[in-house]
Write a structure and sequence with these properties.
The chain is built from 3 helices and 3 strands. It is of the alpha+beta class. It has a 3-stranded mixed sheet. Strand 1 and strand 2 form a beta hairpin.
């Protein structure tokens, strides 16, 4: 998932890995997500959700699942504050 609002790009860690830290690949990923604003290639902020794409399997402990869920909740709150409210 990739979003762009208020000068900030939000993406999951797996999306960032696909870019390979290359501006051309980053631009490609933005376009693939339907983001065609040229300013998005050089965002004011890049927010990376490190829990995005986390793999949970049958042997993942309840403690780990809880930590992932809590981290994702904190990240989503930050996302709302920054992207939805323009950083306010």
């Amino acid at each position: 998932m990739i979003e762009y609002r208020n000068g900030a790009v939000l993406m999951d860690l797996v999306d960032l890995e696909h870019c390979g830290f290359d501006v051309g690949e980053f631009h490609f990923e933005l376009q693939a997500a339907g983001i065609d604003d040229p300013a998005a290639v050089w965002p004011v902020a890049l927010l990376v959700n490190f829990t995005g794409g986390a793999v949970v399997g049958p042997y993942t402990s309840d403690k780990t699942v809880t930590q992932i869920t809590e981290a994702d909740s904190r990240f989503q709150a930050l996302r709302r504050r920054i992207l939805d409210n323009g950083g306010g």
